[in-house]
Structure prediction request, 338 residues.
Amino acid sequence: MTNALTELLKTKDAILADGATGTNLFNMGLQSGDAPELWNVDAPDKIRALYQSSVDAGSDLFLTNTFGGTSARLKLHDAQNRVAELNRIGAELGREVADKAGRPIVVAGSVGPTGEILVPVGSLTHADAVEMFHEQADALKAGGADVVWLETISAPEEFRAAAEAFALADMPWCGTMSFDTAGRTMMGVTSSDLAQLVETLPNPPIAFGANCGTGASDILRTVLGFAAQGTERPVISKGNAGIPKYVDGHIHYDGTPELMGEYAAMARDAGATIIGGCCGTMPDHLRKMREALDTKPRGSRPTLDQITDALGPFSSASDGTGDEANAPERRTRRRRRA
Prediction:
């Protein structure tokens, strides 16, 4: 299938994605507990500004403000009947910004987890999950999104349901999981598990990888895990800007723009093709990431020691796929008492 992302992949050695949605919107005045998706209608100029800030910082691709756009998530805000409206408008605002950029920009329709657990562990059926994702994907398509971007998924069952839904919507897609529990997702998926899963899907993603998690070092270890599987599919790395810390009543990420620049170049060298930031990543970070990708020559695949020397220690002893006892203690971040 030919689409804007596959065309861009043909012309670029590495694609710079965007940064955080939530962090940037909180800085614009969004209150904790509010649904960001409602701003697509209630504060469209702020959403345009969010998208534009990524483009201005050098991003080739940005995600729409629709992460919590399924009926299950919007139900928490009594907006479950506004799925089509909020997702369509979120994509339309993105299309507007992208089309005036003067260079190819991919609008990726963000789709987050439903927040429900699928059967047999939970109560959400496969059919209902497919229906939720299909409804959202149709709306993003109607708004002009180039691809659907599934992110922060933990369970393989939810990943499969989304893939089926995107096929029904006839939309190309990308998919990432969050490896935030000692190198695994909350539901126990490892990097090798995901690399194998995507190849079993009837409707595989254009690209797959990791987002969010616990910091730049950890996500690069996960990227190395994808690469070790020998995948030929483009890999996504969209890591947080450092480690979250509670400072003066709010969450602060300690990753500097310079650190994120180092991270971007190392992510490319580790095997990632689409590189961006997640929580805490601001336009200043993206500018340094753009500069690093444009100016640093491609290097050899980094070792674990090189990653920790440049970006700091890992948060766990292993990536979830091996023997934790084999990992040197100096590579891991010791837990501190609060």
Notes: The beta strands are 15-16, 61-63, 106-111, 147-153, 173-177, 207-212, 235-239, 244-247, 250-253, 274-277. The mean pLDDT is 93. The first strand starts at residue 15 and ends at 16. The chain has 13 helices and ten strands.
